[in-house]
Write a structure and sequence with these properties.
Among the domains are: about 180 residues, no CATH class; about 140 residues, Histidine kinase-like ATPase, C-terminal domain (Heat Shock Protein 90), CATH 3.30.565. Helix 4 runs parallel beside helix 5 and helix 8 runs antiparallel to helix 9. The protein has about 475 residues and is an alpha+beta fold. The protein has nine helices and 15 strands.
Length: about 475
Amino acid sequence: MKRLLPKSLIGQLLTLVAITLAIAQTINIILLYQGAQNQKTIEASAAAVARITGEIERINERGFRERRYRRDGSLRIRRNRPNVTTQSAIEAGQERLPSVEDRAARAFDNMGVTLLALEIARVDSLPTKMTDSVIGMGRERQRMRSVGYGRKPNKINGFIIMSAQVGEGRWLNIASVIRDRNPRLIRTLLLQTAVIYLILLIPLIWLGRYISRPLKALTNGAKNFKPGASEPIEETGPPDTKQLIAAFNDMNGRVGAMLDEKDVMLGAIGHDLRTPLAALRVRVESVEDDDERERMIAGIDDMDRTLDDILSLARLGRSKEAAEQTDISALIETVADEFTDMGEDVSFSRSGRITANIRATLIRRALRNLIGNAVKYGKQAVIAVDKSDDKLLIHVDDAGKGLPDDQIEAMFEPFARAEASRNRATGGSGLGLTLARAIARDHGGDVLLKNREEGGLRATLILK
């Protein structure tokens, strides 16, 4: 069901209104149709009441004449007039209409007609005994012909039979036609529904677009949000939406100001730490013991690299380097050659020119971190490039022992290392994978680690 629902705000709004309106109109159509059907029955019963009332007045003037004969002795049939029987014409099993009976009884009372009993029933087909005592059969056709209409009369939907007891053992019985006097009712109601849909939905479409357009701009602004670098979004739409966009722009400004302060602070920290490190290194050069001097210099270099990693990670996302189309294969070859020149076992088989829109300096640093981990912990690095849909995958495989599956994700935490001794000789600062993943995600990608079936670990740099 969720798959069928629109994903946009305006689509869901229009769908909700359309469904609600459809339910309301369906109920309205059912009620109107039932009311029309009841009205047809009431009209038929009113005609029967009038006919029986007229017959009772005639009886009061002339008395009962159950049979009338012509001069030739044949029976004269009183068509369209009530017949007289000793019992009600309503048979067992026929559909009685209590509400219509009550209404008809009140009508007789209002006209001063007193009845001993009154029964009314509805039938789909006219009983044979009522064939000559039915009203409404030919009147419609005669009326339309008299004014020049050629179409057929309205369809007959059934009959009501009214039996009124006017005396002991004397019943007046008349049948009345129930005609469909609104043959176009359903079409009219459907047309009405269509008009209501147009009148209601067109303004809603305009309102939805009026609301959704600035929200869409806000969504795109949030997706492409770069602290301090994003342009303010135009404040349009309803007052609530304008306030939301204004709050977002204000937040963007505050975040940018905070990051500017952070950059100033990091710059000051970097300067304040590197200056004494540089002075310390100058002093270390005067140490006479060569082994001790080298160890001290290595410690200072490690501190400098760690400081550089921390500052790079903190400033990520604020790089001033613009992204540009870069030959990925050439970039990998350059980094691989750096390790090869240092005697490391690094190999890369170039399969052709592959370009991507990246910030080359950052991606080069991420590759150095991944390859450095591979040669440090896995003794070698085999690099391969794969392209899948809109993603570029750079695989770095090593020949080490791999990692326990439950520790792989933890390796991306800052200062986490597979070698737990924290010995500088066996590991770095623990920021390499953290920085590589941050760089990849800044490019819309990621870094994944996976144990290889043949042994070793595969680090995959994903770029989009």
